[in-house]
Amino acid sequence: MPNSPINTIALADAWEWLLGLRHQRPCDVAITLTPNGEWQTLQTVSAEVRELLDCLTPLASRPAWVVAQLGQSMDGRIATESGHSHYINGHESLVHLHRLRALVDAVVVGAGTASADNPQLTVRHVSGPHPTRVVLDPRGRIPNDLTLLRCDTAPTLLIVGSEAAETVTPAHVQRCVLPLNASGHFNPHDVIALLADKGLPRVLVEGGGVTVSQFIEAGAVDRLHLLVAPLLIGSGRPGLKMTPIKTLESALRPPTRTFRCGDDTLFDMRLRDTPA
């Protein structure tokens, strides 16, 4: 890659600054954080670098938060009726997702997503550390041959209900038990508290739509990153599905910023204020 012009901050350097900020380590990039949590520099930055810093500095600079992420079509679908979802969003959105993974301590998915997608939940498209992988499996139904359980690339937490059958797990997998609510699901706040107790205060709720919806409805999410592709599916699985409301006065109207992710649009929604 050609060298950037003198006094110009490259995208890779801006990302390394964000990683340094997140992990509280020195970084030789001419960007500083103001007392009110904004980035500043005397050097030249491109529009792409500015958007990266604007989008992710609020996350990299804070010690604890919960971000939910969903990728969907313009008509709110995250998969076809058969479950096919590769790839609704473009490569730039995948890079953004991996940046989120690199900034968090733990990435959370539900049992349905783990079983259907068999994800790795690691950081591969950018530099940065792998997060702890967390699977919410109330009834202990995920297959034993999932990559998460077989591959020790990153530590894994398997959170199950008290009625889930005992299983033998590999050394990199820790089994945790949480109570279930009346509908047979975990209380999202119990999950967040468990992760915080284990030293994992920065959390990405990655999927699927049901899990993300439950965390939002419980008021457990600070920000929602909704990546919308210029695509109309017309049918299929919806992204967010929460308790029906009667009037629009009850709808969530969070402060929202938008960013470009290639052909996709990222909606960064602040669902609650995160302590500095």
Plain-language structure description:
This protein is α/β, with parallel strands linked by helices and 276 residues long. 25% of the residues lie in helices and 25% in strands. It has 7 helices and 15 strands. The protein has a 9-stranded mixed sheet with strand order 10-9-8-7-11-5-12-15-14, sandwiched between helices. Strands 1-4 form a two-stranded parallel sheet. Strand 8, helix 5 and strand 9 form a beta-alpha-beta unit. Helix 1 packs parallel to helix 2. The protein is globular and about 60 Å long. The mean pLDDT is 93.
Q: Give the oligomeric state of the chains in this entry, treating copies of one chain as homo and distinct chains as hetero.
A: single chain
Order of helices and strands: EHEEEHEEHEHEHEEHEHEEEE
Distance linking N and C termini: 36 Å
Spatial shape: globular
- Strand tally, please? 15
The percent range for strand residues is: 25-35%
Instruction: Enumerate the strands of the largest sheet in spatial order, edge to edge or round the barrel.
Output: 10-9-8-7-11-5-12-15-14
- The pLDDT mean sits at 93
| Uncertain stretches of 5 or more adjacent residues | none
Structural class given helices, strands, pairing?
alpha/beta
Largest sheet: 9 strands, mixed
Number of separate helices: 7
Which percent range fits the helix content?
25-40%
What's the gyration radius in Å?
Answer: 19 Å
